[in-house]
Amino acid sequence: MLPFDNRTGQPSLEWMREAAAAILSTRFASAGFDPTSRSDRMYALDHLGLPEGFQPSRASSIKLAQTLDADSIVVGNYTIDGNTLVAEASLVDVPNLRMMPAVNASGPMRDMMSVFSALAWKLTRQLDPGFRGSEETFIAAGRQIRVDAFEQYIRGVTEPDQAERQRHLEQAVKLSPGFSSAWMALGREEYNQQRYAEAAEAYAKVDRSSADGLEAGFYGGLALLFQGDYAPAAQSFADVARVLPLASVLNNEGVALSRQDKDGSSFFIQAAAADPDDADYHFNLAISLKRHGNLPGAIGEMAQCAKLHPADDEAQTLLAAWKTPAGTATGSVSADPLERIVRTFDAAAFKQAAAMMDEMETQRLASLAPRDRAQALCQRAQGFLDRGLLLEAERIDQEAVAADNQSADAHAGLAEVRLRSGDDEEARQEAETALKLDPVNPAAQKILHQIQAESGQK
Length: 458
Prior knowledge:
This protein folds into 4 domains: 139 residues, Rossmann fold (3-Layer(aba) Sandwich), CATH 3.40.50; 85 residues, Alpha Horseshoe (Serine Threonine Protein Phosphatase 5, Tetratricopeptide repeat), CATH 1.25.40; 112 residues, Alpha Horseshoe (Serine Threonine Protein Phosphatase 5, Tetratricopeptide repeat), CATH 1.25.40.10; 90 residues, Alpha Horseshoe (Serine Threonine Protein Phosphatase 5, Tetratricopeptide repeat). The protein is 63% helix and 7% strand. Strands 1, 2, 3, 4 and 5 form a 5-stranded mixed sheet that branches.
């Protein structure tokens, strides 16, 4: 996703360049695609020696996409016609160097989110002609965020001055308290300023099912750890590890437990097994084993640390001291050295691991009988729906219908999505289909009663 070209002639609307890219990226991700992040784009621009505000030509856009290993790029522009926002975009097929026909959407400026969401739906249909999600759901997905809040968020992530970034982001979450991406950006600002209590509070507001959820859990755990809230820090890392048990997460969970005078050895063992070439994991395991009375094991692990990192003076000193008979050690050795914390979120590692786990889940579902697969998908879709994630819920319910078209729960799930998207007629049809398959389906009955009640009130 590239920033759109501002053709309004109004510098005050320059912020919409990034807004367009952000909205489309969010909708694409919800629809099951893998859009590159803004930070990835910034990295690629820097790698190519291009400034952040660079407006690329078609040729440079393709070069940028190739640097990011992207299959497609979206280029677009927006104009203002009176009070109407008009947006246009084109999809470029990078491997075949082919540009798809342009699509456009328009609407009142106050409905900016809906305009770009409608544009995203049309582009999604080009990316995947078999996509069955509705335009109404795309539009409904952005209704909970106010346009002024989104403007503040975009200004907050693009403003070069830290104090101004902070001010804009605080305003964004004030205007839209449920704005997960804004809370994530605010958490980063607070964390980078070492305001750990404020950072932990902001990260806690990030939707854990969003693309930022795991990173928020990781840095939220660090913020809690650095301010001495060890029990909630351990829980935060445990929540991340439950989804992706990477070595860095397990290590930090072990540190948080150790700071509570608990035995974190099992977590350090798992971390060292997952990444045996990281010297710090062996260091932490050695410290933990020594603290809990296993000196031979501690010496072995510290020796491995020293072997992997010969310049680690602390490890070399501790190893020498532990090997020396009691009472004969010389030099300065900490009586109880602290385990080392992994302070950086490895986004690439998390993304790769998440992709592997998604593939494993896909294979697991594929091994189920159609009826069981549909039921499992319905439960997953309901989880998204409970969090207000309409696009994700719709996509999973569609998969459930494809797995078993006789699943009343799948049709009832789609009925609820349609109802929340404002499409009462489609909601009625899906609910009636569900009741034909299961005459006592409670979800479908509830939806029909709600539609009838609202129709009577009108």
